[in-house]
Amino acid sequence: MLKYNAKYDEALNFFEKALDHIFNNHIDITNVFSNIAVLYCYKCEYQLALEYSEKALTLEQDTLPKIHPQLASTHLKIGGIHHQMSNYDPALRSYQIADETYRIALSPDHPSLAIAQANIGMIYIDKGDFKSAIEITRKSLTTLGISENHPIRGIMHSNIGLAYLRCCDYTLAMENFEKALQIQFVSLPPDHLNIATTYNNIAAIYFESEENYERALENYERALEIQLTIGLIYAANENNTEALIDYNKALSTSISDHPFSSRTHLNIGDVYRKTDN
User: Which residues does UniProt call coiled coil (predicted)?
Assistant: First the structure.
C-alpha cells in the first residue's frame, strides 16, 4: 500500500507543479483540480478530494452555462465522494442536481443519466429508505432509453434486489439478482466485480432464507473465484501505472459499496460450520 501511495504522491506532486505554470486558463486549472481530487480518492483522503472537486465546480460555474453536462459530471463526482464518507444527505443533493441537469442536457439513452439515477437509488438504500429506493429505481428502469442489456440496468436490478434483501423479501430479491446476473453475463467480462457481488448477494439469500448451505457455499465460492482472478490480473500489471490506477479505482468503488473481500471468506467458514452442526 505504501508503494501505491508513493505513486499517487508522485502524480499529486506533478499536478501541483502544473498549477504553478497555469495562469488564466480556467479549463486547464479545472482539469488539474479534478485530477488531484481523483488521486485523493484513490488514497482514501476524501476530505481533500472533496475540497478539490468543489474548487473545480466553482470554476466551472463561472465559465460554463448553468445547464452543461460537465457541471452535472462534477456534481456526480462530489456526490460520490460524500457517499464514500457516508454523508448521505449531501450526496443525495449532488446526485439529484446531476440528474436534473442531465435530464435537460442529455438524451434519455445517455449512460450518465442512468448512472446518476442508479446512484440516487443506492443512496436511499444506504439511508435505510428501501421503499423509496425500489420505487425510484423501478421508475428509472422504465423511463431510461438505454438498451435492455446495458450494464447499468444490471446495477439497478442489483440495487432493487439489495433493497428487497434488506427488507427480508427474499423472493423479489432473488428475482432481481437473477435478472442482474443475466444482464451482467452478456454485458460484462466474466471476472467483473459486479458479477462477484451478485453471486455474493444470491448466496446471502440461500444462507438467510432457506438455510440452503450447499447453494450458499456454491455462490460464495464463485464470488471468491472472481476476486482471486482479479488479484492475479492486478499482480500481472503491477508495473503498469495505468492498469494499477484503473484496478484501484474499480476496487475502491466496488469494495466500499459491497465489502465482500473478507466477508466472503468469513461466510464460507460460517457455512461449513453450520453444515457440520
Answer: none
Whole-angstrom CA distances from 62 to 29, 139, 266 are 13, 34, 50
Is residue 256 predicted with pLDDT exceeding 70? no
Radius of gyration of the chain from its Cα atoms, rounded to whole angstroms? 20
What are the distances in angstroms from CA 178 to CA 118, 184, 263? 18, 10, 21
Closest to 139 (Cα-Cα) out of 151, 156, 163, 127: 156
Torsion of CA 58, 62, 63, 67, to 10 degrees: 80
Asked if residue 82 lies in contact with residue 91, where contact means CB atoms within 8 angstroms, the answer is: yes
Judge contact between 193 and 230, C-beta under 8 A: yes
For residue 65, how far is the Cα from the chain centroid? Answer: 28
Classify residue 148 by its DSSP letter: T
> How far apart, in whole angstroms, are the C-alpha atoms of residue 246 and residue 268?
29
- How do residues 178-220 score in pLDDT, each as one tens digit? 999 999 999 999 989 899 999 999 999 998 887 788 898 899 8
Asked if residues 188 and 171 have their Cβ atoms less than 8 Å apart, the reply is no
